[in-house]
Design brief:
Layout: H1 3-16, E1 34-35, E2 49-52, E3 62-64, E4 67-73, E5 77-84, E6 90-97, E7 115-117, E8 120-126, E9 130-137, E10 142-150, E11 162-164, E12 167-174, E13 177-184, E14 190-195, E15 207-209, E16 217-221, E17 226-229, E18 236-240, E19 258-260, E20 263-269, E21 275-281, E22 288-293, E23 305-307, E24 310-314, E25 319-324, E26 330-335, E27 346-348, E28 351-355, E29 360-365, E30 372-377, E31 387-389, E32 392-396, E33 400-404
Length: 406
């Protein structure tokens, strides 16, 4: 290939592919909820910008390059909105069909989060009966749609896609049926589909588990199984089945598992208050449970964070915790909020940010000693998980989307 053409092709790839500064999917890079940088001051009276988002929803914003994408909904439409990430100006809006439908009181008709990669944006939308995966260009041109079938759950929708290696993955887990699918990101062609044992709907999003000397694995956890797949073929690499005691109801997985200290750590729960955290070592002759924890000071809806061999979290009731991922020993736990928490925390540099449903926010150090360094109030309710990209913090409130930073 001529040198000029090679350089031009490389520039195109670098332009379209997400960078380390982007927040390209639910929970950011690889679903980790973590990013390098420094949290900017959070002053609702002095945001970089603040805009009203049409419709309602608890979808999180995603940011790639100079564009921000967020999903929303009303009784007759499902919306994908693209904003200028630096100014908040609406660049385009695309509408998908929808109708009124029942959801849990803390859920919405737009709870899934988009994923953006290679100049494309992927969204899973529920029209009130069926779910579908839609692909758009970064400029809003619709590329393709793949139906995912009808959807049944007492809680409503909330699935988010993930993109790796030219494939888009969707974990379609619902009441009574479960399947993980991989689609060609460019064409929408179904590359593989594997059925999973179903129970009640779980909402975890797959992530890529990458370890030295081992092929990458696509990892997903639900009520019935924590499984690693070959992302190219859907072949099971390893699997661990949680053992639910007789007489105890199996619990859902809402927040995705994390990888910390050589363990896959997965949190389970339900609306009745039952909680369970399980750590699995996948490197033995067969995957094995290393430790587990049954108490209400563990999370259900908010996703966990990993930093080295530590797992950090905030519970649905506002209890922050730090656990040694290798042994399951609690390093510390402290109450930070007196109100409920639905949004997942994020880790920026060495600081954790969590927002309560009331809009109150808290920042503490990701360290072996708890240190609350600052707190405040956004001034409106928050259920969506925040995003951080290129030094800017994005927070979706009940009525507005805020950007803080320079």
């Amino acid at each position: 290939m001529p040198r000029l053409l090679l350089l031009s092709s490389l520039a195109l790839v670098l332009t379209l592919a997400p960078s380390r500064a982007d927040w390209p999917r639910f929970r950011g890079p690889n679903g980790s909820g973590a990013a390098d940088g420094t949290l900017p001051p959070i002053d609702p009276a002095k945001p970089l910008w603040k805009v009203a988002v049409p419709g309602k929803g608890v979808s999180s914003p995603v940011v790639v390059g100079d564009k921000l994408f967020v999903q929303s909904a009303d009784d007759t439409r499902r919306l994908l909105v693209c904003l200028d990430a630096a100014t908040g100006k609406t660049l385009w809006t695309r509408e998908l069909p929808g109708r009124p439908a029942k959801t849990h009181q803390k859920n919405s008709l737009a709870s899934g989060t988009a994923a953006a990669a290679d100049g494309r944006v992927f969204v899973v939308a529920w029209d009130g009966e069926a779910v579908a995966l839609h692909a758009f260009t970064a400029d809003g041109k619709e590329l393709w749609t793949q139906g995912l079938g009808t959807f049944t759950s007492q809680h409503g929708p909330g699935h988010s896609p993930a993109v790796y290696g030219g494939l888009v993955f969707v974990n379609v887990d619902q009441d009574g049926a479960a399947v993980l699918k991989g689609f060609d990101a460019a064409t929408g062609d179904l590359k593989w589909a594997v059925e999973r044992k179903a129970y009640r709907a779980s909402y975890s999003t797959p992530f890529l588990l990458e370890r030295p000397g081992k092929p990458a694995e696509l990892l997903v956890g639900t009520t019935t199984e924590i499984t690693a797949y070959d992302p190219a073929t859907g072949k099971v690499v390893w699997a661990y089945t949680p053992a639910w005691p007789a007489g105890e109801m199996p619990l859902r997985v809402v927040g995705s598992p994390v990888w910390a200290g050589g363990r896959v750590v997965c949190a389970f729960g339900d609306g009745g208050g039952a909680r369970y955290v399980l750590a699995v070592d996948p490197d033995g002759r067969r995957p094995a449970k290393v430790w587990d924890m049954k108490n209400k000071a563990t999370p259900y809806v908010p996703c966990m964070l990993a930093r080295g061999d530590r797992v950090l979290w905030v519970t649905d009731k506002g209890q922050a915790g730090c656990v040694d991922a290798r042994a399951g020993k609690v390093v510390w736990d402290e109450r930070v909020s007196v109100k409920d928490v639905t949004a997942s925390p994020i880790l920026v540099g060495d600081e954790v940010l969590a927002l309560a449903e009331t809009g109150q926010w808290y920042v503490w150090k990701a360290a072996d000693e708890f240190e609350l360094v600052r707190k405040g109030d956004l001034g409106e309710p928050v259920s969506a998980s925040p995003a951080f990209a290129a030094g800017r913090l994005y927070v979706r409130g009940d009525r507005h989307l805020y950007c803080f930073g320079k």
